[in-house]
């Protein structure tokens, strides 16, 4: 039930909105404004003076082979994280949707990883995959596979993808499960009576009916992989080895905080901001307008 | 086309039994309607035939072959669901073609069969639409079309008309009957609506608390209900029931209210004073003419329907009683009207078991 509240004056409604507006102003518009301002300035090495350089910072960033490396890393990383997290979550949700004993406990366990902080998650995976103290890492080496993600860039990438995807599976699982449960049972029964085997039924009926959920999750997962995986990467690989796992968000940190190239780092954040705005716009459009059936 | 046979079909959900052994044989091309109040197990029975539920005991045979262990997909049965269960992301054409595609019917033939069926149902113009762009009646037709186009051995209908408005329901009812006759497909139709059951079925299965209370033609069920449940369920307004005792060596019933009514068709078994329930349909009651000795009905509600009037009231013993009299000039509420209960219209039931008591052979 939606009830429309009518206010008499204009003071109260603005007052009620004020906390939200204040939070947005302080934690988004202010830093975003700073970043945009910073992105067109260049500081001297001692931070005493800054001069206006126009789009020079952007030009430099986009021509930097290390930046293009980070773009490529981000593309690989995000695509893999989204694919892995969505695939695993859908598989688990389909299993959990069946009527099985102890489904409640099973579902609760699957939702837990979401509550684990990124750094803690990273440490968990580190204890599994560390070449000398990790359970799996040692087993791999004992089996004759040269496993050391601290030396091998591809292995490092695989590890951060695995850890990041693992953390996101829970979130996707909840949405997929809700999506599956909202498909009318009778539609599936109708398909069964039409002669469709479970696998065929899944691809021709269940999956298409899940497509709005899937689309929403693809956008959310890409956003997650772009922006919320800093902690995992920082704790596991620190962007290494040799910048093999340096993503766009990680490079912003490295250039700004470690290398103190404030102008270049700010320019990168502005680019990232543009990407997230684009992603959000796409999502809003589709979620509001196009339901796929 | 096929025959269907149910042998001792039982079903329990956990410790709760919902079907207590149903036996039924449906002939080739016959339309059998399963009717009963909600919770009587009628839908469960249909779903067991479909293969969507596994029976706890008993067997389902199609054309003499035991299909109990088979999946729904392997039974070659089509079902029309109460909420239609159309595939919302597919066009009407694809909805109807789905089952044929699975059976790897050649494309050209799929097209031909879907178009023929659509024509039969008058939905040719809708083939490109999605289900959500259709009205309730159109969805209903598409659901029928999806079942028909597959040319299955058996049709199952699970209350397919209950989501339609009254006028459309009557229209679709006639249409389903016509189609079923024309296609000659053996059908099971589940409904809670007795009018639907009476008009659609070659035979009825009246279900009550997980048992088949009576399996017979609609006229037989109406004229000779097997027990008080069936008698009260079929017919509108419902049959009147009066407490009575066996009298005159089994040849009459003494109403609790006083009058003694003689049976027209012979004596009932049992000792004098055996407790009975007498049933009289409201439409069989007559207003007593002057000089005739009727049972007085204290009318407390009169419903004029134009061609007839339905009177609700109480008999001297306090029993609620309904009478349906021809014409609109019947008495008003508050009056007392003497009624006659014709002997040939009496149904006699045993008060303990509720079963019908037939006259002893003369």
UniProtKB/TrEMBL annotation, chain A:
Keywords of this entry: Cell inner membrane, Cell membrane, Membrane, Transmembrane, Transmembrane helix, Transport
PROSITE patterns, per database record: ABC_TM1 (PS50928)
GO BP: any one term: transmembrane transport
Record-linked CDD domains: TM_PBP2
Main location: membrane
Entries under InterPro entries matching the protein: MetI-like (IPR000515), MetI-like_sf (IPR035906), UgpAE/MalFG_permease (IPR050809)
Protein localization: Cell inner membrane; Cell membrane
Family: Belongs to the binding-protein-dependent transport system permease family.
Function according to Swiss-Prot or TrEMBL: Part of the ABC transporter complex UgpBAEC involved in sn-glycerol-3-phosphate (G3P) import. Probably responsible for the translocation of the substrate across the membrane.
Protein name (record): sn-glycerol-3-phosphate transport system permease protein UgpA
TrEMBL record, chain B:
Entry-linked Gene3D superfamilies: 2.40.50.100, Nucleic acid-binding proteins, P-loop containing nucleotide triphosphate hydrolases
CC annotations in GO: ATP-binding cassette (ABC) transporter complex, substrate-binding subunit-containing
UniProt-listed InterPro entries: AAA+_ATPase, ABC_transporter-like_ATP-bd, ABC_transporter-like_CS, ABC_transpr_MalK-like, ABC_transpr_MalK/UgpC-like, Mo/tungstate-bd_C_term_dom, NA-bd_OB-fold, P-loop_NTPase
Xref: PANTHER family: MALTODEXTRIN IMPORT ATP-BINDING PROTEIN MSMX, SN-GLYCEROL-3-PHOSPHATE IMPORT ATP-BINDING PROTEIN UGPC
Any one GO MF annotation of this record: ATP binding
Taxonomy of the source species: Bacteria, Pseudomonadati, Pseudomonadota, Alphaproteobacteria, Acetobacterales
Domain (ABC transporter): residue spans on this chain: 4-234
Any Pfam family: ABC_tran
Identification of the protein by name: sn-glycerol-3-phosphate import ATP-binding protein UgpC
Superkingdom as given in the UniProt entry: Bacteria
SMART domains: AAA
Keywords tagged on the record: ATP-binding, Cell inner membrane, Cell membrane, Membrane, Nucleotide-binding, Sugar transport, Translocase, Transport
PROSITE patterns on file: ABC_TRANSPORTER_1 (PS00211), ABC_TRANSPORTER_2 (PS50893)
Keyword Kinase: no
Keyword Magnesium: no
Family that this chain belongs to: Belongs to the ABC transporter superfamily.
Gene Ontology biological process terms, A to Z: carbohydrate transport; glycerol-3-phosphate transmembrane transport; glycerophosphodiester transmembrane transport
Residues forming coiled coils: none
């Amino acid at each position: 039930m939606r009830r429309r509240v009518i206010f008499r004056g204009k003071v109260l409604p603005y007052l009620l909105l004020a906390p939200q507006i204040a939070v947005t102003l302080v934690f988004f518009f202010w830093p975003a404004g700073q970043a945009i301002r910073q992105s067109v300035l260049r500081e001297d090495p001692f931070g005493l003076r800054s001069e206006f350089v126009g789009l020079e910072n952007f030009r430099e960033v986009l021509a930097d082979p290390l930046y293009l490396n980070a773009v490529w890393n981000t593309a690989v990383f995000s695509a893999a994280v989204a694919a892995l997290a969505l695939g695993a979550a859908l598989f688990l949700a389909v299993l959990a949707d069946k009527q099985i004993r102890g489904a409640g406990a099973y579902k609760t366990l699957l939702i837990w990883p979401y509550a684990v902080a990124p750094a803690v998650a990273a440490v968990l995976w580190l204890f599994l995959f560390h070449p000398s103290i990790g359970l799996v890492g040692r087993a791999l080496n004992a089996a004759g596979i040269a496993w050391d993600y601290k030396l091998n860039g591809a292995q490092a990438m695989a590890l951060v993808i695995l850890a990041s995807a693992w953390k996101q599976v829970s979130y996707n699982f909840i949405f997929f499960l809700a999506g599956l449960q909202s498909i009318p049972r009778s539609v599936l029964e109708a398909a069964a009576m039409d002669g469709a085997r479970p696998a065929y039924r899944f691809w021709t009926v269940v999956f298409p009916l899940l497509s709005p959920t899937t689309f929403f999750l693809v956008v959310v997962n890409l956003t997650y992989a772009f922006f919320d995986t800093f902690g995992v990467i920082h704790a596991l690989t620190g962007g290494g080895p040799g910048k093999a796992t340096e993503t766009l968000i990680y490079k912003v940190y490295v250039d700004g905080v470690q290398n103190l190239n404030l102008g270049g780092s700010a320019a990168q954040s502005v680019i990232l901001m543009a990407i997230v705005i684009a992603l959000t716009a796409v999502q809003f459009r589709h979620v509001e307008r196009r339901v796929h059936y | 086309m096929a025959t269907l046979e149910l042998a001792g079909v039982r079903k329990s959900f956990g410790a709760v039994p919902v079907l207590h052994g149903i036996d039924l044989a449906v002939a080739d091309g016959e339309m059998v309607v399963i009717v009963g109040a909600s919770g009587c197990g009628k839908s469960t029975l249909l779903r067991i035939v479909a293969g969507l539920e596994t029976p706890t005991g008993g067997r389902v045979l199609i054309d003499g072959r035991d299909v109990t262990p088979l999946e729904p997909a392997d039974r070659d049965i089509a079902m029309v669901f109460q909420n239609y269960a159309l595939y919302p992301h597919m066009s009407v054409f694809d909805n109807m073609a789905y089952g044929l595609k699975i059976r790897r019917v050649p494309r050209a033939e799929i097209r031909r069969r879907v178009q023929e069926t659509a024509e039969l149902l008058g939905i040719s113009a809708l083939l490109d639409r999605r289900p959500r762009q259709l009205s309730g009646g159109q969805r209903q037709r598409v659901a029928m079309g999806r079942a028909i186009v597959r040319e299955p051995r058996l049709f199952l209908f699970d209350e397919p008309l209950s989501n339609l408005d009254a006028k459309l329901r009557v229209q679709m009812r006639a249409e389903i009957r016509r189609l079923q006759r024309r296609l000659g497909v053996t059908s099971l139709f589940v409904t809670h609506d007795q009018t639907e059951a009476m008009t659609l079925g070659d035979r009825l299965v009246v279900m009550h608390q997980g048992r088949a209370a009576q399996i017979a033609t609609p006229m037989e069920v109406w004229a000779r209900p097997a027990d008080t449940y069936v008698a009260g369920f079929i017919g509108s307004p419902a049959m009147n029931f009066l407490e009575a005792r066996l009298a005159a060596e089994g040849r009459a019933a003494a109403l609790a209210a006083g009058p003694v009514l003689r049976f027209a068709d012979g004596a009932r078994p049992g000792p004098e004073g055996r407790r009975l329930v007498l049933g009289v349909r409201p439409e069989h009651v007559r207003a007593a003419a002057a000089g005739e000795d009727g049972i007085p009905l204290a009318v407390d509600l009169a419903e004029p329907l134009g061609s007839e009037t339905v009177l609700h009231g109480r008999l001297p013993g306090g029993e609620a009683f309904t009478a349906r009299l021809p014409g609109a000039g019947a008495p008003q509420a508050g009056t007392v009207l003497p009624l006659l209960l014709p002997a040939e219209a009496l149904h006699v039931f045993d008060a303990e078991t509720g079963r019908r008591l037939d006259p002893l052979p003369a």
